[in-house]
Amino acid sequence: MPQKQELENKTMHNNQKKIAVINDLAGFGRCSLAVSMPVISYLGVQCCPVPTSIFSNHTGFPEYFFDDYTRHMDAYTEKWRKLGLKFEGIASGFLGSKEQIGMVLRFVEEFRSHRTKVIIDPVMGDHGRIYATYTEEMCREMQRLLAYADIVTPNLTECCKLTGTPYKESGWKKKELFGMAQALSGQGPDKVVITGIPQGGFIANYVLEKGQEPKLFRTHKAGTERSGTGDVFASIIAADAVNGVAFDRSVKKASGFVKKCILKSEEMGIPRTDGVCFEEILHSLPRS
């Protein structure tokens, strides 16, 4: 009888759509898991966090507490294995070491099924510079991870690094963007969005989906850059993928919502380090 009940529970655990999100957790500063959990949940999908590290606040502040969670990650996910959990989505964000990238690879191999969408946000750098913590070996491992992705959401810097393209701050032509997006898609993902492309007074996102015409979406620049905007964007993309929202619609929705969050944060006088006040306007985010 206990075995029968256990089998029934394993089935019932999977009655609701779930996304496993592998990222760090910062208690203050609105980034990573602290963003993904409320945004994905609001969009009607259970967010199951896999913490890679714990921060009191993100590293954009002068001081912070930090605890590396790498040594616990396999034991943590082992319990999910015993529960028989299945996921409609697996998403990863910032990964702090080669070992953590390897753990994501193993997690995808074990928990992915025919119904799982894998969303990789290769958080590696910005403004033409790769983060100091990111080694060349980690960059190569990230390229390996792309082969497992259904959707990849690099910014311009990350896209250049992953495709071996020289970075430039502006002057990108559609042909150049198409070449990079196609190179990324050739490594595995069916869907690619290159984010944060400067175009004068606009910021653009370049969208490539296999079997469809590429698209370039532009929005007027708003306010100042803030921590966590990429996490808001990627969380919407991940939840929408599980919910069956068209990819181009999802990209437009995500970029528009990020802009609204930035404007609201400016209106409230929130410091840049504190991220974006998505809580104030989350109710306005379309669920489809």
Oligomer: single chain
Strand order of the largest sheet: 3-2-1-4-5-8-9-10-11
The string of secondary-structure elements, in order, is HEHEEHEHEEEHEHHEEEHH
Residues in helix, %: 40-55%
Helix segment tally: 9
Broad structural category: alpha/beta
Average pLDDT metric: 94
How would you describe this structure to a colleague?
By secondary structure, this protein is an alpha/beta fold. It contains 9 helices and 11 strands. Strands 3-2-1-4-5-8-9-10-11 form a 9-stranded mixed beta sheet, with helices on both faces. The chain has a two-stranded antiparallel sheet with strand order 6-7. Helix 2 packs parallel to helix 8, helix 3 (70-83) packs parallel to helix 4 (98-111) and helix 6 packs across helix 7 (174-185). The longest helix is centred in the last third of the chain and has 21 residues, at 247-267. The chain is globular, with a radius of gyration of 19 Å. The N and C termini lie far apart (42 Å). The model has no long low-confidence stretch (mean pLDDT 94).
Condensed summary:
This protein is of the alpha/beta class. It has helices at residues 2-12, 33-42, 70-83, 98-111, 136-146, 156-163, 174-185, 229-243, 247-267; strands at residues 18-26, 46-55, 66-68, 89-92, 117-120, 125-126, 129-130, 151-152, 191-199, 202-209, 215-220. It is 40% helix and 20% strand.
